[in-house]
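User: Can you help me understand a structure? I only have the sequence.
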Amino acid sequence: KHIMKRSNTVSSSRRKSRKAHLSAPSDKRRVIMSAPLSKDLRAKYGVRSVPIRKDDVVTIVRGGKKNVSGKVTTCYRRKYIIHIDGHTREKANHQTVDIGVHPSNVVITALKLDKNRLELLSRKKT
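Assistant: Let's start by predicting it. Here is the structure, written out as tokens:
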């Protein structure tokens, strides 16, 4: 059943949505690549989710590698994935490669805090 669109400024076209998502610039991709905070961090900071970054500690909550946790080693914005320390697989030639995980499938359990990150948390809290 087709539902009428709500806003005139935003297209509901699948084609345009995909185009916008796949050709988004790096600063927009950072926001898209946000991950939810764990329950205790959410209570501590009063914030539901933040853009993920290198050195955050995360736990995978969806997929075959559920409950695996580790530090984020790479935020691969071009592919919309993150690489997690110790989350690898072995190829047929015995070479190990990182497995990419989408940030929506993880929960942040420890934040890498610096001046800008604390500022962002205080800004989002209000």
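Now, to help you interpret it: The CA atoms of residues 23 and 93 lie 34 Å apart. Residues 115-125 form the longest helix (11 residues). Let me know which part you'd like to focus on.
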